[in-house]
């Protein structure tokens, strides 16, 4: 029928299916996702004196404050490892997650011109901060390496789980980001809810304290927070001080996948109206 | 007619309709905002609520086809649905009904420079902007030299774009977009930016694209440019296609519409994301009465109201007077009498521009006024075509003074002297 087999045909219709992802299109545009993330990394620390060291200083100072307050004053238990390295191993992942989530949830509104002037796969916009945040995570990682040398920690075989944990955290931040950024297009209330929500989340995630100080009956409740399993496993596989809690990690993985997939579905469902509402 | 392979349909638009709720701009309020506004303005809220149920069809049952290699012009007054059509074709928004079938990649020049970041260098922005427009890195590598040459910013490639003059930014942005290689190119009003030299370059680039066998959709208020570039034209009015045919015919019908309509409906539009938006235009006589008719020995005061939503420097306000044949017989700007206005900065707020129009040069007939605003060479701000019209009806018309039809678009009473020698 067509002269060229490569002819790219596109039909614009009012309605699509529930999980209608155009894989061909995502492949076409894959370089753009990289450029978007690269742009984010390049401009993040422009015109700052400290530059990229902010990525280090943020978790470092939080760790120092936590060590003074929770470690020294409150004598918080820390799985038997020195409190600084204990809290930093949690903060490292927490900082990545909370920054990625905050930026992702406001990303669609912040990038209104990208929505109303050109077509790009919308899903890239809330994904970008979660990708570029990985660079900060990598930079902040150097501190924990120094601390591991100082405190003589050698990670065990479970370190191989690290990429998997990072991937899950990325999916979790993106998934929540898809939900919140899509909602924020219509209801700007999200902008005010997110900082508050992130603040509360810190206290119900095992960053400051180990999850085993919570009693058995409450433990299950804590597991409902997908970060519980991720932060616990992240710390365990880096420090190797306790075995990885596979039950917790499994629950987290399951919840993460549910949030990630439903987030994509919600974004796909609402994206048609973004340009009209923004 | 002949049906060769070349005449393959590239764009097929079938029963395309797009509906907007009229209260669309009120939808992203926060909850508390809705409550306080309901308490403060109960009547307005009630009206808003009622208008929510009212819907507005920006496009209604639009059907057309475009063949490979065709350059199709789309014209229509403000609010006719041109931008909505282009937005659907470039997938920015979705239709309510109907469908569009596109055979090929769509490159859109709806807004040049989207995604430009002022902290990044020219080079980085070329790559970034190119990929937003759908180019692959390899393609950008290949075209890089051409883009740079076209824009004329060679020396400043590694300087952050924020150090560029606004004109340079626009040129660079357009160059990236113009070097796209899509099968379908959608162009909207980009020609309003840049100087004459650059506009010529752009028009040249567009005809080059069309000659290369690609399809171009061109929306513009510039009927001259449409006439030069397009063989076929679509005229939209209130969401319907009212003519689809030879460019010359369509343009003349379009200009006729302009002379017929004189209500203020063109000002009713969503202006929330405009930096500058015209809100009204009125013509007054010397007694301060609003008029639609005048004589050639009375002066008309043209009063243009506009809202400024952001602080801008060097805003040019311009009006153009068209005669019944669609010929622009005069254009006047606020820079004409006071060139210092180029450097004046205006804070956000409501403004009114007044200009006294001496009508002694106008012959009897109907005239329409188009108003537009821009920052010259930088940015196009707003335009209302045929914003208002007026009639000159002098008791003693020169056409009647002579017993034959006198030629000449304008009239000037010149002093004659005849001596016997």
Give the percentage of residues in beta strands of chain A. Answer: under 5%
Number of domains of chain B: 2
Order of helices and strands of chain B: EHHEEHEEHHHEHEHEEHEEEEEEHEEEEH
Query: What would you call the shape of chain B?
Result: globular
Q: Largest beta sheet of chain A, briefly? A: none
In total, how many domains does the architecture of chain A comprise? 1
For this structure, the quaternary state is heterodimer
CA(first)-CA(last) distance of chain B: 68 Å
Helical content of chain B stands at 25-40%
Number of helices of chain B: 11
Major sheet of chain B: order of its strands?
5-6-7-3-8-9
Give Rg of chain A in angstroms: 21 Å
List keywords for this structure.
heterodimer; A: about 280 residues; mainly alpha; disordered N terminus; B: about 425 residues; alpha/beta; Rossmann fold; Coagulation Factor XIII, Chain A, domain 1; 2 domains; globular
Secondary-structure map:
The complex is a heterodimer of chains A (278) and B (421).
Chain A: E1 9-12, H1 23-28, H2 30-44, H3 54-73, H4 83-110, H5 112-117, H6 124-150, H7 162-186, H8 189-203, H9 216-223, H10 226-239, H11 246-270, H12 274-277
Helix pairs in contact in A: 2-6, 3-4, 3-6, 4-6, 4-7, 4-8, 4-10, 6-7, 7-10, 7-11, 10-11
Chain B: E1 9-21, H1 31-40, H2 42-53, E2 55-67, E3 71-76, H3 82-89, E4 97-103, E5 106-109, H4 122-132, H5 137-151, H6 166-178, E6 184-188, H7 196-211, E7 215-219, H8 223-229, E8 232-237, E9 240-246, H9 247-260, E10 276-284, E11 293-294, E12 299-308, E13 312-313, E14 316-322, E15 328-333, H10 334-337, E16 345-346, E17 349-358, E18 365-375, E19 379-392, H11 398-401
Parallel strand pairs in B: 3-7, 3-8, 5-6, 6-7, 11-19
Antiparallel strand pairs in B: 1-2, 1-4, 8-9, 10-12, 12-17, 13-16, 14-15, 14-18, 18-19
């Amino acid at each position: 029928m067509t002269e060229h087999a490569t002819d790219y045909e596109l039909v614009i219709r009012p309605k699509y299916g529930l999980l209608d992802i155009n894989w061909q299109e995502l492949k076409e545009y894959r370089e753009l996702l990289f450029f978007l993330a690269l742009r984010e990394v390049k401009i993040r620390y422009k015109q700052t004196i400290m530059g990229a060291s902010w990525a280090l200083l943020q978790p470092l100072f939080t760790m120092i404050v936590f060590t003074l307050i929770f470690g020294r004053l409150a004598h918080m238990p820390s799985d038997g490892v020195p409190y600084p390295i204990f809290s930093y191993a949690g903060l490292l992942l927490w900082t990545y997650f909370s920054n990625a989530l905050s930026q992702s949830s406001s990303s669609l509104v912040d990038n209104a011109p990208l929505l109303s002037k050109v077509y790009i796969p919308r899903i890239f916009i809330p994904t970008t901060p979660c990708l570029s945040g990985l660079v900060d995570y990598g930079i902040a990682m150097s501190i924990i390496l120094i601390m591991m040398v100082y405190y003589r920690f050698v990670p065990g075989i479970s370190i191989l789980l690290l990429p998997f944990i990072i991937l899950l955290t990325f999916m979790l931040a993106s998934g929540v980001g898809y939900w919140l950024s899509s909602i924020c297009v219509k209801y700007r209330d999200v902008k005010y809810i997110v900082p508050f929500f992130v603040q509360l989340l810190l206290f119900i995630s095992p960053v400051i304290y180990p999850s085993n100080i919570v009693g058995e009956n409450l433990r299950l409740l804590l597991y409902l927070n997908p970060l519980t399993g991720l932060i616990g496993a992240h710390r365990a596989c880096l420090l190797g001080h306790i075995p990885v809690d596979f039950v917790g990690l499994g629950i987290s993985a399951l919840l993460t996948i549910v949030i990630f997939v439903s987030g994509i579905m919600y974004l796909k469902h609402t994206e048609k109206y973004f340009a009209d509402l923004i | 007619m002949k049906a060769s392979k070349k005449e393959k349909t590239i764009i097929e638009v079938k029963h395309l309709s797009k509906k907007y709720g009229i209260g669309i701009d009120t939808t992203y309020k926060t909850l508390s905002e809705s409550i306080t506004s309901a308490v403060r303005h109960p009547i307005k809220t009630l009206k808003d609520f009622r208008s929510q149920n009212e819907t507005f069809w920006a496009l209604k049952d639009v059907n057309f086809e475009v063949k490979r290699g065709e350059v199709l012009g789309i014209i229509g007054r403000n609010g006719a649905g041109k931008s909505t059509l282009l937005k659907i074709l470039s997938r920015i928004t979705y239709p309510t009904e109907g469908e569009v079938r596109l055979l090929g990649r769509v490159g859109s020049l709806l807004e040049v420079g989207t995604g430009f970041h002022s902290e990044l260098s020219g080079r980085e922005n070329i790559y970034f902007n190119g990929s937003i427009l759908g180019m692959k890195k390899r393609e950008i590598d290949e075209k890089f030299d051409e883009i740079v040459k076209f824009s004329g910013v060679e020396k400043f490639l590694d300087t952050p774009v924020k150090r560029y003059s606004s004109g340079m930014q626009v040129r660079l942005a357009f160059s990236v977009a113009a070097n796209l290689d899509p099968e379908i190119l959608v162009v909207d009003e980009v020609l309003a930016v840049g100087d004459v030299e650059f506009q010529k370059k752009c028009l040249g680039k567009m005809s080059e694209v069309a000659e290369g066998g690609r399809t171009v959709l061109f929306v513009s208020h510039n009927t001259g440019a449409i006439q030069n570039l397009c063989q076929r034209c679509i005229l939209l009015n209130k969401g319907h296609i009212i003519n689809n045919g030879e460019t010359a015919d369509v343009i003349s019908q379009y200009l006729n519409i302009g002379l017929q309509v004189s209500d203020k409906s063109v000002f009713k539009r969503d202006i929330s994301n405009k930096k500058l938006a015209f809100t009204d235009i009125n013509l007054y006589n010397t007694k301060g009465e609003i008029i639609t008719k005048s004589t050639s020995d009375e002066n008309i005061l043209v009063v243009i109201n506009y809202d400024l939503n952001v602080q801008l420097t060097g805003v040019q306000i311009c009006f153009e007077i068209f005669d019944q044949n669609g010929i622009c017989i005069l254009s006047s700007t606020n820079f004409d009498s006071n060139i210092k206005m180029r450097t004046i900065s205006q804070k956000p707020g409501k403004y009114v521009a007044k200009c006294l129009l001496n009508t002694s040069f106008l012959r009897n007939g109907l005239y329409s006024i188009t108003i537009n605003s821009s920052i010259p060479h930088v940015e196009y701000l707003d335009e209302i075509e045929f914003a208002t019209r007026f009639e000159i009806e002098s008791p003693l018309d020169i056409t009647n003074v002579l017993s034959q039809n006198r030629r000449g678009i304008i009239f000037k009473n010149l002093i004659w002297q005849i001596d016997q020698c």
